[in-house]
Amino acid sequence: MRPEELEAGQAEAGGQAPRTLLPGATIGVLGGGQLGRMMALSGSAMGYRFVALDPAKDAPCGQVTPQITAAYNDRDAARELAQRADVITYEFENVDAGVAALLTEESYVPQGSALLYTTQHRLREKAAIEAAGVPVAPYRKVGSLAELEAAAAGLGLPCVLKTATGGYDGKGQAVIRQPEELEAAFRQVAPGTAAGAESVNVPELVLEKFIAFKCEISVIAARSASGEVKSFPPAENIHVDNILHLSIVPARVPEEIQRRACELAEQIVSGMDAVGLLAVEMFVTEDGELFVNELAPRPHNSGHYTMDACVTSQFEQHVRAICNLPLGDTTLLTPVVMVNVLGQHLEGAIQAACSTDEEANKLGVSPKLHIYGKTESKTGRKMGHINLLCKDTGDGLAWVEQTNLWRN
After folding, report:
1. Of the candidates 153, 286, 282, 138, which has an alpha carbon nearest to the alpha carbon of residue 212?
2. Residue 200 — left, alpha, or beta (φ > 0 → left; ψ -120 to 50 → alpha)?
3. Which domains does the chain have, with CATH numbers?
4. Which is nearest to 394 in space by CA: 368, 370, 367, 363?
5. CB of 54 within 8 A of CB of 62?
């Protein structure tokens, strides 16, 4: 499917009449990772059935729900998913947009293919955020080393060079602080580019002005098929080696900034006519300005705290949104610190969370363990998370520090 054909079909895809699907209906999930697993567990408790499509035979979601094992771009498998499901959603944004468009023709996909098409490409995503009236960091499109040099001169250094498509957890990007780093960054982000032939086979790139931020926050916003919008309290996010390490809620920023962050997230999810969840990542500057960094049209790692700390979890909210039920209450019930469990932490984290923990008792912290069922544990791979329910987030942070598991 050519881009112009996909774009032409977007209004039609997004224009499917809202349907209310009650418990007992089957939800098809493109993707069988941990997000699909947690969605299925939450939705199953509400009475929904699930079926996932994933190429891995023992995918996390497939362990708890029926699964079609096939490649994401397998159109026959996609049609089978459409036949078996009453509504289809996706659990990660790098699903083949052409398949998503096909499914909108043969099934009910309230998220449509337009949201995927937009968020799979950073330049399209930034344009959509700006169209919603929300600020992003200054940026330029880059297609060659010469264009990179010109863009860097225009924006000023430091900057961050990113691929327009793909990339996550810091992959597909490079920070440029000095002019002499421009060429190395270009070769890193666009590997295999021959000197003197920069414009040949170069993936689309985007250069972003580096924002001197005080902290990073994210807001998970939801919009139902009929247009109801709600957002969860902002999470303050701390990354280590470009991988989310901690989410702290309430975020340690003034209430006015938290309120404004929720307003911006709701403005974007409404402006894009999104259905389901939209995670909106933002930078907070020293003087309180907010700049949107990235979007994710799905449940998000920084929203996992909602599973134990909010009236409604992000996963239940997503199910409610795509099935056109009234959205759930997003009230925070308790301060919480979410800490990711990577492969190198797995054994120790399970031991710490499943044993009598005098330190946790002393601090008044209640660890809630969530393990994703991945078959292979690797360093840096997300294997689970722990939600630390506490009277004060400082106590949760102290528990993380004192366990000594997250220092490697």
Report:
1. 286
2. beta
3. 3-119 (3.40.50.20), 138-209 (3.30.1490.20), 213-403 (3.30.470.20)
4. 363
5. yes
Please tell me the distance from the alpha carbon of residue 276 to that of residue 266, in angstroms, as a whole number.
Answer: 12
C-alpha closest to that of 96 among 140, 142, 157, 55: 55
Angle between helices 122-131 and 255-271 (to 10 degrees): 110
CA angle, residues 231, 234, 236, in degrees to nearest 5: 160
Which 3 state secondary structure label does DSSP give 120?
Answer: coil
Alpha-carbon distance of 373 to 60, in angstroms, equals 5
- Helix, strand, coil share (%) of the chain residues, nearest 5: 35, 25, 40
Q: At CA 72, angle to CA 67 and CA 78, rounded to 5? A: 65
pLDDT tens over the chain, length 408 residues: 333 333 333 333 356 899 999 999 999 999 999 999 999 999 999 999 999 999 999 999 999 999 999 998 899 999 999 999 999 999 987 777 678 778 888 899 999 888 888 998 999 999 999 999 999 999 999 999 999 999 999 999 999 999 998 766 556 889 999 999 999 999 999 876 544 444 456 778 999 999 999 999 999 999 999 999 999 999 999 999 989 999 999 999 999 999 999 999 999 999 999 999 999 999 999 999 999 999 999 999 999 999 999 999 999 999 999 999 999 999 999 999 999 999 999 999 999 989 888 889 999 999 999 999 999 999 999 999 999 999 999 999 999 999 989 986
Dihedrals phi, psi of 367, to nearest 5 degrees: -80, 130
Q: Which two three-digit tokens encode residue 244? A: 């989310």
Which string of b and e fits 265-300 if b means at least 16 CB within 10 Å? bbbbbeebebbbbbbbbbbbeeeeebbbbbbbbbbb
C-alpha distances (whole Å) from 169 to each of 66, 138, 196, 256, 306 are 29, 21, 31, 29, 21
- Give Cα separations from 300 to 112, 327, 391 (angstroms): 19, 18, 24
